[in-house]
Write a structure and sequence with these properties.
29% strand, globular, 5-stranded parallel beta sheet, 9 helices, 26% helix, alpha/beta
Length: 379
């Protein structure tokens, strides 16, 4: 089989390349140029070329900077300007890695594209999917199926995940034993096009907004959610009826905060406060103690169906944040004027997601049923 392997310069993609080369496949390496260098970000091309030469693999470089800017960076900047918390990695996987880069692989004569993601593809028969189903990796601490759940099913039929059964440590050991130098040896948890943490991407956003002509809302009120005395006998029926909002400060712009956040609020109070929600209509940041932090449900749009709803279990497992657990929920798929929507209800209060974050549905065996983007959090 002729396989293109997407190589970024990290240990995972090099391990995928090594494994497929050793398995006797005809492989080529494919490196995507995605963004202009930022700060001290390492340049992996020279090291990648050396690694590919040692394996007898040809390296192809594909310039996708224009598409990456239009389809990942610009939506990322626009979402933050609107007060949402976007997930650029999920958009990159959908539009770039398994979109434009897969197209480039096919144009070079490859039959399929392999990547260094920790995920599996499993038989589809029990879920009515037209091809193999995306599923959690065998080593779940590194599972990346959450970030892949927006990739369309037809794209996944052209994909291989060689690291499906491996651990991160196992991959690093294989690469080291092969004598391959890793061009980008340190795994980054920052946004790739603005490495350096929160402060760096805030600087990046301000530059990008100026370029795109966007003006996010400025400072506004910080409102403390607190108990309200009942005006009539009996308990209030809804959380909103039970709580009053009192102004206790001024925020620096809603885009600087996200739901659930505790650190960096700079609000003096007698107990730790968290961001409960962002009221974009009133440009208000609603905060409160952890005891009031949570959601009982959410609505998500931009639904990517990977298995037919008629084959879903009665209570799918839902992941609302990367690193968060999966929680059983009642899920209803509705078709409206703005496309398909997932309406999710949990049996108990969960740590809140944020509008713009990915919501992924799984079955009991870890197969991905659908992915979507959270639009509304329901307290």
């Amino acid at each position: 089989m002729r396989i293109a392997v997407a190589v970024s310069g990290g240990v995972d993609s090099l391990c995928a390349l090594l494994l497929l080369r050793r398995a006797g496949h005809q492989v080529l390496a494919l490196h995507a140029l995605l963004a202009e260098p930022w700060g001290d970000a390492p340049a992996p091309l020279e090291g990648l070329a050396a690694a590919c030469r040692s394996l007898g693999v040809k390296l192809h470089v594909v310039d996708l900077r224009g598409r990456f800017s239009r389809e990942v960076i610009a939506p990322f900047a626009a979402a933050y300007a609107e007060g949402r918390t976007p997930n650029p990695c999920a958009l990159c996987n959908r539009h770039i890695k398994f979109g434009a880069l897969l197209d480039a692989a096919l144009e070079l004569g490859a039959e399929t594209l392999a990547t260094g993601h920790y995920a599996r593809l499993v038989p589809h028969s029990r879920r009515g999917a037209p091809g193999p189903l995306l599923a959690m990796a065998a080593h779940t601490p590194k599972d990346q199926s959450y970030f892949l759940s927006l990739v369309p099913q037809e794209r996944l039929t052209r994909v291989i995940f060689p690291l499906a059964e491996l651990t991160k440590a196992g991959c690093a050991a294989l690469v080291a034993e092969a004598g391959l130098a890793v061009p980008v040896p340190v795994e980054s948890h920052d946004i790739c096009f603005a490495p350096g943490g929160v402060n760096a991407y805030r600087d990046f956003l301000e530059r990008k907004w100026a370029e795109l002509g966007l003006t996010p809302a400025g400072p506004g009120p910080v409102l403390l959610s607190e108990e309200k005395a009942a005006e009539t006998p009996g308990s209030p029926k809804t959380p909103d009826e039970a709580r009053a909002l009192r102004r206790i400060g001024t925020h620096a712009g809603l885009w600087r905060y996200t739901e659930g956040q505790r650190r960096g609020l700079c609000i003096a109070h007698d107990e730790a406060l968290h961001v409960l929600r962002k009221d974009t209509a009133e440009n208000a940041l609603v905060v409160g103690p952890r005891s009031r932090l949570g959601m009982r449900g959410c609505v998500a749009g931009g639904v990517n169906l990977l298995a037919e709803p008629g084959f879903w279990p009665g209570r799918p497992l839902v992941r609302c944040r990367y690193g968060g657990g999966v929680v059983p929920a009642e899920v209803r798929l509705e078709e409206g004027s703005n496309g398909k929507k997932l309406h999710v209800r949990f049996n108990e209060t969960c740590f809140p997601t944020a509008p713009g974050q990915v919501l992924t549905l799984y079955d009991e065996d870890g197969a991905v049923l659908a992915g979507a983007l959270a639009e509304e959090v329901l307290p």
